[in-house]
Amino acid sequence: MNKNTIKNAIESNRRKLLNPQTNQPKYPTITKMVKNFGSDVLKNVQSVAAGNPLKSEEAEASRRKSICEKCEFYNKNQERCLKCGCFMAVKVYLKASSCPINKW
Length: 104
Hints:
This protein is mainly alpha-helical. It has a domain at 27-91. The chain is 48% helix and 4% strand. It has a two-stranded antiparallel ribbon. Strand 1 (74-75) and strand 2 (80-81) form a beta hairpin. The protein is globular and about 50 Å long. The two termini are 28 Å apart.
């Protein structure tokens, strides 16, 4: 791949992640974000009910956050994921939570 091909691919992906009217990050719909949140809550409640801790260890949360910060779907200004809409400063600490694209 040459530099122009890579540059065009990056720009194309950037445009897909922005709302064309506002040029702001495009998050999932409210309905989808509520579903994602509900699913995460359920997973974490089930995990705690099975005797597991709710919170990840600090090292694991840092590892997860580091992965998110390198991801093309991470909005660093809001510390949110463009795939699930979650606030990653919280989600990385919930032990049973997972990345919507299976990066962690």
